[in-house]
Amino acid sequence: MRRVLQEHVDAENAHDRERVLATYVADGAEFVDVPSGRTYTGDDGIIENYRNLWDGFPGLVRRVDRWTFGDDACVIELTLTGTHDGSYRGIAATGKKLELPIIAHFEFDAETGRIKRETAYYDTLTFRKQLGL
Fold first, then answer.
1. What pTM did the predictor assign?
2. The architecture CATH gives domain 2-130
């Protein structure tokens, strides 16, 4: 799990669509963004979520602060840092810096060893304040 998650985070930081998708199960994975109430399903849905992030925060970097492993899942505490230099989900660029703590829970597929569901939790008030909204 650690190897797959490290590759996942490295691919996210490289904004590499194919590498990110390779860490998920083939076209059946889900990304659940709890605060926004959105669930992205399959390759196209998951990439839609990343496209929003990569367009809105072109220099976005994830830093893993802590890993907690279970039998078939892992929780990571991470910090997103970047500048809001592009449109993000319809929000025009503010030029403001973001440093957002996030908890992400990853469930793994026993057969493939890849991610079948990622669930993200973060504070939307902190996010909005940092962007000056």
1. 0.92
2. Roll (3.10)
